[in-house]
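Why run this: before we spend reagent on co-expression, it is cheaper to look at a predicted model of the complex and decide which construct boundaries make sense. The entries below are exactly what would go into the expression plan.
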Amino acid sequence: MRKKKLQSFLTTLGQPMVSVTIALLLGAVIIGLSGENVFKAYGVMLKGAFGDGYYLSSTLSRATPIIMGGLAVCIAWRSGYEAMGGEGQMIFGALSAAIIAYYVPVAPFLRTVLAMLGACLAGAVYSVLSGWLYEKWRVTFIISTLMLNYIANYVASYLTIYKLKDPEALDINASQTGKIMEAARLPRIFKAYSLHWGFLIAVLCVVLVYILMNKTEFGYKSRMNGFNSRFALYGGINARKMLYMVMILSGVCAGFGGSLEVLGSKYRYIDQMIFNTGYAWSGMVAALLANFNPIGTLVASILLSGLATGGAALQRSTSIPVETVNMIEGVITILMSVKLLNLISVRYRHTRKKEGGEKQ
Amino acid sequence: MIFELRNITKYYGDTLANDDISIHLNEGEILCVVGENGAGKSTIMKILYGLEQPTSGEILVKGQPVRFRNPSDAMAHGIGMVQQHFMLFESLTVAENIVFKREPRRGPLLDKKAMLAAVSELSERYKLKIDPSARIENCPVGLRQRVEILKILYQNAEIIVFDEPSAVLTPIEVEALLQTMKELAAAGKSIVLITHKLNEVMAVADRIYVMRSGKLVAERKKEETSTDELAYLMVGHHPATREIPPVKTGETLLATEELSLHKDGRDVLSKVSIHVDGGEVVGIAGVSGNGQSELESVINGLEAPTGGKVLLCGRDVTHESVHTRRELGMAHISEDRFLWGGAVSGTLSENAIMAKEEREPYNHKGFLRKKKITEYAGSLIERFSVKASGPDSLLGELSGGNAQKLVAAREIMMETPVLICCEPTRGIDIGASDFIHNEILNKREKGDAVLLISSELSEITTLSDRIYVMFEGKIVGEFNRGAVDEKALGLLMLGGKIDA
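The model came back. Tokens follow.
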């Protein structure tokens, strides 16, 4: 039994480890070709990501929205809904948080709380929209969520450029909302470092999602739905309720992640801030790497965030451009997507194989 | 000797599936391989067909050693297999599926006329009735299998392997199939038939291999053996027969009133009225695809009828959810254990607790109690002797028979007043199916109502106190136990009439 557990542990970890290794090797080739010392370069990256308090703190701080985006993916995908709408939900979450925290005339603490709640609501509503499109019209999640991501980003752009522009901005071309008052922000944990309480809140969310998915009736039902939706129906699980609960929870995670980034890091919504950083996508890669395990997603998010902060350090101290690092993440994504495709095609085959007989 | 397997041994991890198996096949011969589930006969067939590689041993075709890396290699050597689960394109027509990869062409285009002619000719020659232009997705299981057989015949295989081919056919169709096999053998083709239906074996076989626990335990010529001996060799002991006490019916627990379902432009169910009383097993006989699956899903709540009512324990549940029906007292062994009845990537515990996940003591305020669930799963595994390493193994790791036992265990142990059993023993061996039959009879003795939908006629006639016959969505006959024989039922199932 123990041996079997070890085996399944290794098979779960096998693909992520191979993917990351291949990606890093490929990165090494590119670094080597640009004439730099590979070991030195990776050393610089490692130091720039986790080397001291300052770097570690920016890595963790950057990881915060990635973790939340990853959790959103964990919840939806484990339940059998291949939704990729985390980005759009995160954008509306971030924007709602920025607006509420800036405009709503209540006590600062209340502004923070309201901003977070508003972000959750915005994420949930946007996520439910794709759920509704699926339920009512059978619009595939992949298509609806990807398109809704663009819509969210450009609606947010329009609002920040034309309607909610920062009234105090010195540069009249700055497309961003007004800066949230200091008392309404999520405070830093250590004064000198950028790490804020949002990170710890995200870690708490990881634990909550883990419990929800593994210990509760809801987690069981959603997992069975993900394994075999027909089996769930047959067992009496209400598919419609399951779909909407999952979409709401997943949207809440993504939207909430957006608010943490605004309240803890940027203190405003800046046009394209979620779109350009690719937080939601990194979250998706993290969730894939972790096979939709929330705890694993936390670890993978920090690693991916480290890749980005380390990459920035690489650019500062060597001639290697930061794009190299983007390539490494790209390669990881592609290699993990192999699994993603497998997953989808397995599900597809299961649904197509209408008449099964023996399986031996 | 057209084909030979020499000293084949196959390990799956630490599990020994085939232990030094040597079999051979002569030209024009019908060879049967019999054995219980998990005896290793499916593994040996997978090796024969190139789906699996032996751990050690040799494969020889016409005396030449060969290696099959995949089924195409096997096909290239003239070995065709009629699969147990069908490898067909759902959206293509019957004829298109049959000619796939060897389409008659006119220039670069498909010659539809030639295709239809070839397929019709084939279908007539082997007495396998089909509609060449029907789409597979609209074909019931029985028809799909016929297409599968025709596909192999179309490919002119020299060796044709049948893996449990008669599971979904009516007696008359089975007879025709067996006749087909004989004709094929007479035409010089060599047949391998894997089955556990010993009367079929005795009807066609020239030679028989018996497998048990991965080993070849016996080789017999047909003239030298009997069904009794074969059954004994397969199981290792003589099967017990059970006396069924006369029926004592209570009140009606399940009933349908003029149930109709109109789907895809036709009446899949028309005015089906049946009732099942407490203490009674009621069978629905019919060729698959005559509305039984739809009746099943309308009764259990997966599909809404276009007319009529479903009554459960006296209550109208026509518009209630699956969940409500289960709460009210209905359990259901699904027609297909992997499609509906379970989650292959889930553990046995997860599969065992379905429909009980909201109940104490397994659920406490929304949190699942793993220990209680594992205990419960363990008790099902033990009571139904499911062969598995424990509640944590995955359903997909189990053999078909054991998976079916688990699904049956879950539904029977719901201890509901009404149990719906659909094909409860399809494709599983004698031991497991005897066990499930016994459990069904135990339920009957407790005074519960059992509705048995099966295309296995002998199952229906042995277990049922009353039998309804379904044909094209209608109930065309109702009989008490012993009032009708299998031949007459078979005739009714095909739309014929019997004189009273």
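Chain B has a mean pLDDT of 86. The longest strand of chain B covers residues 252-263. Bring this page to Monday's planning discussion.
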